[in-house]
Design a protein that fits this description.
globular, 46% helix, 16% strand, alpha+beta, 3 helices
């Protein structure tokens, strides 16, 4: 399995949240934190962002029935 990292732009596109909401979620522990991958570079593991999305969709009413 290949590990894929996402920059902030990629995370924003994937989760459809803005930068402020993402960093607020990181601060309060409800969104995955990025890892420092360079002196001035951070990235998120795509698998962690995908799991965060799966957790959100699993909380929907009727999700087990496959209905929105």
């Amino acid at each position: 399995m290949a590990i894929k990292a996402l920059n902030l732009k990629g995370v924003i596109e994937k989760v459809t949240l803005g930068k402020t909401a993402i960093y607020a979620g990181i601060k309060n522990g409800t969104f995955p934190a990025p890892a420092k991958i360079g002196e001035r570079r951070s990235a998120w593991l795509e698998s962690e962002v995908d799991q965060w999305l799966a957790d959100r969709f699993g909380e929907r009413p009727n999700a087990a029935k496959g209905r929105v």
